[in-house]
Design goal:
With 613 residues, this protein is an alpha/beta fold. Helices cover 64% and strands 14% of the residues. The radius of gyration is 37 Å and the shape is elongated.
Length: 613
C-alpha cells in the first residue's frame, strides 16, 4: 500500500493536487511554501497519532490552521484497489471507503524530541510490531475481566464479613434458648391444653421463621433486580439521547451499525420489560408472604392470649421463645448463605487467577517481541546505535493510581506510594489488601505493621480493580556511541538525537513513511554516510517514503522517484512542478532552490575540484 494522491480544498493549499509514487518522493521549496503543511495534512486526514501529547496538539492545530474549514482527501493504492480517505475540521475521525494501514509520520520536532519521552521511545519500537493491535485488544479484554471479577469479589467479601458478624451471635441465642427450656417445660406440666397450645405455637413459630427467611431472600433478590433494571433504564435513556442526535447513515457499514444498535436497544427494552415482570412477581410474592405472616402472627397472638388466660406469665415466656427461635432460624440460614458465598468467592478467585496469568502471558509475549526488535535494530545499526529493553520499568501510572487511592488516609501517601511501587507488584498488592495480610505487606514494603495496617484499611475502601490492572509499561533505552562510550539519548545534543532516531525510523522498509525535514540538525557526512544509504536500501522494498527537505543531496543522491517543487505567493502555496528526478524542470528547481542557482553550483564544483588531490 502507498499514498497515491493528496487533494486539498480551501485554506492556504486550496486546489493542491499532488500525485505520489512508490519509492522516494521529495518535496522541495523555500520556507513558507507549505512543505510541512503537506505532512501535517496527510497526518490529519489519515488520523495518524503523534508521538507525544504535545506533538499531537501542535500537529492538529497546524492542520486545522492550514485547512481553514476546508477538506483534505488522500487516495491510497493497494494493488488494484483504491481507498479514498477524507476529513475536514468537523470530523473527529477520518472517513474512509475501506480499512487501511496508516503510515508512519514524523515531524521535524518529533524527530528531535521523541527519544526524550518514554512513551515516544516505546512507540518507535511498537511501530515494528505487526500483531500489536491484536495483543492490545486481547489485553484490554483480559483487564476488563480481571477488573469485573475483582469488583464482584469485593462485593461478596463484604457480604461474607457482614453475615459472619451476625452469625457470631448464634451460640448466645442457643444458650438463651437452653436457659428458657426449663421454664417452657414447667408451663407444659400445668395442663394438657397448655401443652397443646404450646405445640401449636411452636409450629406457627417454625412456619413464621421459615417465612421470614424466605421473605428476606425475596427482598434481597428484589433489590438486586430493581438495581439492574435501573441501570438498564439509564442505559436506554443514554442510547435514545444519542440516537436522536444521529443523522441518517448513507454508508452501508454505518446503516448496518445503526440497525445493530437499534436491535441492541430492543433487546435491552425486552430485558427491562422482563425484569419489570420479575419485580412484579417478587413484589406479589412478598405481599402474599407478608399476608401469610400476618395471619400466622394473629394466630400466635390468639394462642398466647389463651395461654395467658391459663397461666400468668406464660405469654412472656412464649414470646421470648418465639423470638429466639426466629432469630436462630435466621442465623442458621445466614450461616448457610455464608458457605454459599465462600464457594462463589473461591470460584471467582480461581477465575481471576487464570485471567491474571493470561494478562502476564500477554505482557511477557509483548516484551519478548519488543526485545527481539531491539536486538535486531542494535545488530543492524551497530556499533553506533544500541537499543535495549527493560521489562515493566515505567512505574509512573502505577504510582499515580496508588497515590490517589491513599489520599486522605492520614499517611504520607506520596512517600508511601513510592515505597510500595518499588517493592510490590500490583497483583501482589491486591493479595495483601484482600487477605488483610498486614505482616506480609509490612515485611515486603519494609514499613511498620501499624503503617501497613492503616494503608490496607485505606486501600480496602478504594478501587483495587484499577490498581490490580494498572499497566506497567516496558522501557526503551536508546544509546549512541560517542567516542569510546555509549551515551543515553537524554544526554545527547539535538543533532545527536536525530542521528539516533532517523536510522530507527528508516528501518521500516515495508511501511509508508512521511518525514518532515530529516536533515535538520545533522551534518552532511551523516546524510551521505547513513541517511542516503538507508534511503537507497529501501528502494528494493515495497515501502514508500515522502519527505520534505532543503538538502539537495537527499533527492539527488537518494535517487528520488518523484520530486515536488512548492512555491507560494504569500496567500497560497502551490505546486510548480512534480515529476521524475531527471526531468529538466526538476533539475532546474533543484539547482535554483537547493543549490543557490547554477552559478553557485558551478563555483562550488570548481572549489571541490581544486581541493581534490
Amino acid at each position: 500500500m502507498h499514498i497515491e494522491r493528496l487533494q486539498v480544498e480551501e485554506g492556504f493549499l486550496d486546489g493542491l493536487d499532488i500525485e505520489f509514487c512508490p519509492g522516494l518522493n521529495a518535496i522541495i521549496g523555500a520556507r513558507g511554501t507549505g512543505k510541512s503543511s503537506i505532512v501535517e495534512l496527510i497526518r490529519f486526514c489519515l488520523g495518524v497519532k503523534a508521538s507525544t501529547a504535545d506533538s499531537a496538539k501542535r500537529t492538529t492545530e497546524h492542520a486545522l490552521a492550514v485547512l481553514r474549514g476546508g477538506q483534505v482527501t488522500v487516495t491510497l493504492a493497494d494493488g488494484n484497489e483504491r481507498i479514498i480517505v477524507t476529513r475536514n475540521a468537523s470530523h473527529n475521525e477520518p472517513v474512509s471507503s475501506a480499512p487501511f494501514t496508516p503510515p508512519l509520520i514524523f515531524s521535524q520536532t518529533e524527530i528531535e524530541t521523541v527519544g526524550l519521552h518514554a512513551a515516544g521511545r516505546l512507540r518507535l519500537i511498537d511501530s515494528f510490531l505487526r500483531n500489536l493491535p491484536v495483543l492490545s485488544r486481547t489485553e484490554a479484554e483480559v483487564v476488563s475481566v480481571v477488573a469485573s471479577i475483582t469488583r464482584e469479589l469485593e462485593a461478596h467479601r463484604k457480604d461474607i464479613e457482614d453475615f459472619e458478624e451476625r452469625v457470631a451471635k448464634l451460640p448466645l441465642v442457643e444458650q438463651q434458648l437452653a436457659a428458657l427450656a426449663a421454664d417452657e417445660r414447667s408451663i407444659e406440666q400445668f395442663s394438657v391444653q397448655t401443652a397443646v397450645r404450646t405445640k401449636q405455637l411452636d409450629e406457627i413459630s417454625g412456619e413464621t421463621s421459615k417465612l421470614a427467611v424466605e421473605l428476606n431472600l425475596v427482598n434481597q433478590q428484589l433489590r438486586e433486580v430493581t438495581d439492574l433494571r435501573g441501570v438498564l433504564l439509564g442505559a436506554l435513556k443514554r442510547f435514545h439521547s444519542v440516537e436522536s442526535d444521529m443523522t441518517p447513515a448513507a454508508h452501508p457499514l454505518l446503516q448496518n451499525i445503526k440497525l445493530r444498535r437499534s436491535s441492541t436497544i430492543k433487546h435491552i427494552e425486552m430485558a427491562v420489560f422482563e425484569l419489570g415482570s420479575v419485580v412484579d412477581a417478587a413484589e406479589s410474592a412478598a405481599k402474599e408472604w407478608n399476608s401469610k405472616k400476618l395471619e400466622l402472627d394473629e394466630r400466635a397472638r390468639h394462642i398466647r392470649r389463651e395461654l395467658e388466660a391459663l397461666r400468668e406469665g406464660a405469654g412472656d415466656i412464649a414470646r421470648k421463645g418465639k423470638a429466639l427461635r426466629e432469630e436462630k432460624a435466621q442465623l442458621e440460614s445466614l450461616s448457610k448463605l455464608v458457605r454459599d458465598r465462600r464457594y462463589v468467592a473461591q470460584t471467582l478467585q480461581s477465575r481471576r487467577n487464570d485471567a491474571l496469568s493470561e494478562l502476564e502471558r500477554i505482557r511477557a509475549t509483548r516484551f519478548q517481541q519488543r526485545s527481539a526488535i531491539a536486538t535486531r535494530l542494535s545488530k543492524r545499526l551497530a556499533p553506533r546505535i544500541r537499543v535495549e529493553m527493560t521489562r515493566a520499568a515505567q512505574l509512573e501510572q502505577y504510582s499515580t493510581v496508588l497515590t490517589e487511592a491513599l489520599r486522605g488516609s492520614g499517611l504520607k501517601y506520596n512517600e508511601l506510594s513510592a515505597v510500595i511501587v518499588e517493592s510490590i507488584a500490583p497483583h501482589e498488592l491486591l493479595g495483601f489488601v484482600e487477605d488483610r495480610d498486614v505482616e506480609g505487606f509490612a515485611a515486603q514494603a519494609r514499613i511498620t505493621k501499624d503503617r501497613a495496617s492503616r494503608a490496607i484499611a485505606s486501600l480496602r475502601e478504594s478501587d483495587m480493580a484499577a490498581i490490580a490492572t494498572v499497566p506497567l509499561e516496558d522501557d526503551v533505552s536508546l544509546q549512541l556511541l560517542d567516542g569510546p562510550l555509549y551515551k543515553d539519548i537524554s544526554q545527547l545534543s539535538t543533532g545527536q538525537r536525530c542521528t539516533v532516531i532517523l536510522p530507527l525510523i528508516l528501518e521500516h522498509q515495508e511501511n509508508v513513511l512521511v518525514v518532515d525535514q530529516p536533515e535538520d540538525h545533522i551534518d552532511n557526512s551523516f546524510i551521505a554516510d547513513t541517511l542516503i544509504k538507508s534511503l537507497l536500501a529501501r528502494s528494493g522494498h515495497a515501502g514508500q517514503i515522502i519527505l520534505t527537505t532543503h538538502n539537495a543531496n537527499i533527492p539527488v543522491l537518494g535517487n528520488a522517484s518523484r520530486v515536488v517543487h512548492m512555491e507560494s505567493d504569500g496567500r497560497r502555496g502551490f505546486v510548480v512542478v512534480a515529476d521524475k528526478l531527471l526531468d529538466k524542470r526538476v533539475v532546474s528547481a533543484i539547482s535554483k532552490v537547493m543549490e543557490g542557482g547554477r552559478e553557485a553550483f558551478e563555483r562550488r564544483a570548481s572549489f571541490y575540484a581544486a581541493a581534490m588531490p
